[in-house]
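[Automated response] Your request has been received and processed.

Submitted sequence:
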Amino acid sequence: QVQLVESGGGLVEAGGSLRLSCAVSGIIFRINDMGWYRQTPGKQRELVASITSGGMTNYLDSVKGRFTISRDNAKNTLQMNSLKVEDTAVYYCTMGVKTTLRGVPRDYWGQGTQVTVSS
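Generated structure:
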């Protein structure tokens, strides 16, 4: 069974930095795209950053230049610098995973990690 485990959330002052990590375990044939979403109460979940298996990245406009996503095998990292109060949210890791050669990729999600930025 594929599981994603996130770590690295917490409380930080505005202007500070946090690093989120996401590791996948289980029987994996291939990992396609990896990404981070975030959600605040009453709002839809939004894509913060993503990275393809080839290393191409995509970022939410409001985090460009401040956040960096990277990947290494079965793990990815979201480095968040110059954090703002509006970055406060629950952050979710997601990965597109194939568990067999002929299987269809499926999106898996982590349990979420809270990031709180204080003013």
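Summary generated for your ticket: The mean pLDDT is 96. The two ends are 41 Å apart (CA to CA).
If you did not submit this request, please reply to this message.
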